[in-house]
Each structure stands twice: as C-alpha cells, then as structure tokens.
Amino acid sequence: MNAPLDHLAWRRTRQHLKHTRPTIVHSYSEYTRYFGAGATTLIIDIGPDKWLDLGHIPDNVDVTITGQTCAAVTGGTITAAGRCFLQATHHARVSAYDFAHVEAFDTTTIDAHGESRIVGTDYADIRADEHAIVFAHCHCHVHAAGYTRIAATDTTTVAIDGDAHVRAGVRITGEHQSTNLTIVTRPINCLADHLNR
C-alpha cells in the first residue's frame, strides 16, 4: 500500500504530460513535412518574397502566419499576425492581429483586432474592433466596435458599436450617432485616400 515512490518514473511521466511546443516553419517544404508528420501547432514565418498556398487546414491543426509571410488558405482556421498578407476563401475562419492584411472571399469569417486591415467581398462576415480598418463590398456583413474605420458599398450591411466610423452608401444597423456615419459616393476610394495622406 505505501510502496516507495519511484522518483525517476514520476519525472519521466511528468515530462510526457507537457504540452507540445509549436513548430516554427521557415519554408513550404518544412510546412508540408511537419504537416504530413502530424504536427498540430505550426507557426509560419517566411519572408514576403515567397507565396504559400496552404490549402484547406484541418480542424485539429492550429496554424499561425506571422512576420511578412504571404499565404492563401481555402478553408479551416488560421491566425494572421505581424505584417503578413493572407487571402482566405471557402468558409475559412481567420483571426487577424497586429498589422495583418487579410483579403476575405466566399463566406469567410474574420475577427479583426489591433490595426489589421481587412478587404471583404462575396458574403464575408467581419467582426472588427480596436483600430482595425475594413473595406467591404458585395454582400458583406461588418460588425464594427472600438475605433474601427469602415468603407462599405454594394449591399454591405454594417452594425456599429462604440466609436467606429463608417463611410458608406449602405444600410446601417445598430445604435449609432450621426457623427459616426459619413455618406459618400465612393467610400472605398475616400477611405483609401484618407489613409494614404
């Protein structure tokens, strides 16, 4: 009943219980090798001179692109951080942080934080807060909070919370003050011009 504890066996057991560390990937060949070997957490950090087509990311794999990585994903869940560029399609789910730039198509869902920049089209669903900037057109839905700036057109709907500002010619829902809404004829061009000053 009170057998002595085998301390070495206990240490070996504890070491196996530790969480696996994320695998950092610096090339597409490394990505395919680790992905094929069953890695469940990948962080991709590749320079802007290489384009990665990541395909569909399975639900059991956590992928983060960071740095200046340029990539495309055709489904699944991915996190974009740093100053990366991502194109997301086919029901992909993206969490964007820092200064990430994401182009969302085909019913993609985006959660935009920090100073990320989102371009949404074709039924994309975008939730933006903090200081995110969103360009939305062609049946998008945008839920804006914090100090988000949105340029919306072409049957886009926008819900405003907080101090978000919208330049639009579209239907606006939510409790907003008249100072939060500017109706302009070319809202996307106006916001782009304003940001380039």
Write down the secondary-structure element order: HEHEEEEEEEEEEEEEEEEEEH
Task: Sketch the major β-sheet.
Answer: 10 strands, parallel
Q: Could you give the count of β-strands?
A: 19
Strand order of the largest sheet: 1-2-4-6-8-10-12-14-16-18
Which assembly state applies to the chains in this document? single chain
Low-pLDDT stretches are: none
Overall form: elongated
Q: How many angstroms does the end-to-end distance come to?
A: 77 Å
Helix percentage: 10-25%
Number of helical regions: 3
The overall pLDDT, averaged over residues, is 83
Percentage of β-strand residues: 35-45%
Radius of gyration: 21 Å
The class by helix and strand makeup works out as: alpha/beta
Q: What is the strand and helix layout of this fold?
A:
Blueprint: H1 7-17, E1 23-25, H2 28-36, E2 41-44, E3 51-53, E4 62-65, E5 70-73, E6 77-80, E7 85-88, E8 93-96, E9 101-104, E10 109-112, E11 117-120, E12 125-128, E13 133-136, E14 141-144, E15 149-152, E16 157-160, E17 165-168, E18 172-173, E19 181-183, H3 187-195
Parallel strand pairs: 1-2, 2-4, 3-5, 4-6, 5-7, 6-8, 7-9, 8-10, 9-11, 10-12, 11-13, 12-14, 13-15, 14-16, 15-17, 16-18, 17-19
